[in-house]
Amino acid sequence: MNASELIDTARLMLAPGKGLLAMDESTPTCNERFASLGIPQTEASRRAWRELIITTPRLADSISGVILYDETIRQRCTDGTPFVKLLNDAGIVVGIKVDTGAKPLAGHAGEKITEGLDGLRERLQGYSAIGARFAKWRAVISIGPGLPSTACIAANAHALARYAALCQEAGLVPIVEPEVLMMGGHTLQGCAEVSMQVLHEVFEQLYVQGVLLEGMVLKPNMLLPGLNCSHQDSLDEVADATVTVLLRALPAALAGVAFLSGGQSAELASARLNAMSQRHKWRLPWALTFSFARAIQQPALEIWRGGAANVMQAQRALGHRAACNSAAQQGTYSAAMEGMGNAINDV
Ligand code: 13P
């Protein structure tokens, strides 16, 4: 492990005013999102969508790094330029999703364990040779009656830590993503209790496996009430609860935190990150930013719908969301920025 190289990459990923763009949907997930909008579920469509994203004008103003999928990291733009070269030339760090998905956890109905450790050392070497400098592994934890189980938390935390150690051995910065899902009727307090338990176990396992905290990024969920909870807390309540748990559970040596969006609306994800920056940035020992997929891509995908004539308008929408989240990272986002998509991208 080359510690200073890992630390330098993590710093680039967490550059002030920037965040990460997750475009690493597996083929089934990408196809599912395309199907709901009537977009053909083909390799050509997926390539065209990913080209649209990475050729968005001035993307690098707000985006420090993108997370790609195995299919995407090998693809090229229409003019033949490899995606990885285009991103490197723009100063955007390339990352890669390396887990192979969440599978049912034996003996624990309704719970999942993320797989992909077999052969990971060799796959990481391959991705590093193509140009990846960081990686991502996502574990999912559900809240429900009797859930999550100790077994689910322990197994996922262990896998995340083993993945992270392998990444650092290969010179890649690991993004460690233990996602507590929004599905359910639980309260904000319920999410706080489970998130605290999960984060404690994850950092315990990272310690056991000897992972360098300064050379990794945590990708947690924001603390939110369940989608079916009758009481939806305010921006400030969400911001305060999230920061309280992170401060209690995360070591100060950690390089940074980059939130997933988890199915929130694009505007709410920006507003909640902004509230955290405005209210708490001064007391955080680590960088705090975004690593959104849906909250950056979805509005643009709904405009594109597979149509070549919609590319520029979709890129404006994508650039706008990236700019809103860049502002939110700095605590300068406001609702007034919404509805100004064209103006923001044209300045
Ligand atoms: P969302 O922002 O859509 O939750 O996706 C983030 C991600 O990378 C999921 O692994």
From TrEMBL:
<protein>
    <recommendedName>
        <fullName>Probable fructose-bisphosphate aldolase class 1</fullName>
        <ecNumber>4.1.2.13</ecNumber>
    </recommendedName>
</protein>
<keyword id="KW-0324">Glycolysis</keyword>
<comment type="pathway">
    <text>Carbohydrate degradation; glycolysis; D-glyceraldehyde 3-phosphate and glycerone phosphate from D-glucose: step 4/4.</text>
</comment>
<comment type="similarity">
    <text>Belongs to the class I fructose-bisphosphate aldolase family.</text>
</comment>
<dbReference type="InterPro" id="IPR000741">
    <property type="entry name" value="FBA_I"/>
</dbReference>
<dbReference type="GO" id="GO:0006096">
    <property type="term" value="P:glycolytic process"/>
</dbReference>
<dbReference type="GO" id="GO:0004332">
    <property type="term" value="F:fructose-bisphosphate aldolase activity"/>
</dbReference>
<dbReference type="Pfam" id="PF00274">
    <property type="entry name" value="Glycolytic"/>
</dbReference>
<keyword id="KW-0456">Lyase</keyword>
<dbReference type="InterPro" id="IPR013785">
    <property type="entry name" value="Aldolase_TIM"/>
</dbReference>
